[in-house]
Amino acid sequence: AYASAELEYPPTDPPELARACHRAMAPEKTDRYSTALDFRQALTDFLAHRGSGVLADAAHARLRELEAMLAGGTTGESAHSAWAVFAECRFGFTQALAAWSQNTRARQGLARAVATMAHLEISRGNLAAARALAPELSSVPEDLTQALAELPESKKRYDGENEVKELVDNALKLEGLARHEVLRRAPVDGL
Question: What's the predicted TM-score (pTM) here?
Answer without folding.
Answer: 0.68
